[in-house]
Amino acid sequence: MKKSLILVLCLICAASAFAGASKEKASPDAPVLVVYATDSFLSEWGAAPVVFPIFEEKYGIKIEQRQGGSAGEIVNLAIMEKGKAGADIIIGVDNNLLSTVLKNNLFIPYKPAGLENVKEDLIFDKSYHVIPYDYSFFSLVYDSNRIKNPPKSLDDLLDPKYKKSLIVMDPRTSSPGLGFLMWTVKCKGDGYKDYWKKLMPNVLTVSESWSSGYGLFTSGEAPMVISYTTSPAYHVEYEMDDHIKTVVFDEGNYMQTEGIGILKNAPHMDAAKKFMDFVLTEDFQEALPLTNWMYPVIDIQLPASYISAPISEKPLLLEADDIDKNLDSWLSGWLESTLGK
């Protein structure tokens, strides 16, 4: 994201954190909660600077942030540590990682207070090892000043008139990159490799992360990018500009739901359970639309800017077992189709 945009976000989130939390923090000898979370959640413009101080003041529990990174990186670290690092919870495990955390027995099952307020179709783990806290849909985001008639389906994206017009992310290192790959697998089945071969002439670059790819988009390098249906709300909220738009595709949009879980050997189990309960309260949920830029999982009033963030009526998902069995093969097929490896 451009430096000016990041600065605005930092200032706004800092102000929100100050307004939302007590001036007093947990005392030095207070109970501790050790958190692993994604970089986006922990960043200065993410949800952590807003919700962590509220939790610390409300419960008298000090939060220690020990690890950031992508969701996949954090999960892999927890698997390697085998519960020896002293972490209590992981924030940011999405539906595409569910099979990995269940197979490796990382979390305990826990049904937090307030779970009855979560929409049933958002509870992607019926064993309650991972509890959802926000969601959105991967989508095509475009600059309406440059694209007047945007693609409305995956097949439309193949039109030669969009040559070198699209930025995508690497599914090995980016959640949106993986989500877009899952989207093509869901819609094209075994034909996803052929689809990617046909798509590549229209791809300007494959970025390592969402932030680098979206930064190229906002700087004008390409008029289209893979992001979220919620992305345009950011531009309306903080730039007061609605020329960045999204598309709900005819065949539906692939859904991402982010969740949180308590690690099996959490040394601060009581504190971890309190935080799980806190996640489904309005104090936490109301912070998400303007920090994580995702929809909350309980019914709260969304900011006015979310009028530009449509919810897909055809959410697409792959079964956790299918992902577990086929992910390595899908990634290999993607590499072969896009990079010739």
Describe the protein in words.
By secondary structure, the chain is of the alpha/beta class. The protein is built from 12 helices and 12 strands. Strands 1, 2, 3, 4, 5, 6, 7, 8, 9, 10, 11 and 12 form a 12-stranded mixed beta sheet that branches. The longest helix is centred in the C-terminal third of the chain and has 19 residues. 45% of the residues are buried. The N terminus is likely disordered.
What is the topology?
Layout: H1 3-20, E1 32-37, H2 39-42, H3 48-59, E2 62-67, H4 71-81, E3 89-94, H5 98-103, E4 107-108, E5 131-143, E6 166-169, H6 175-188, H7 192-199, E7 203-207, H8 210-218, E8 224-228, H9 231-239, E9 244-247, E10 253-263, H10 269-279, H11 282-285, E11 295-296, E12 315-316, H12 320-338
Parallel strand pairs: 1-2, 1-3, 6-7, 6-8, 10-12
Antiparallel strand pairs: 3-10, 4-10, 5-8, 5-9, 5-10, 5-11
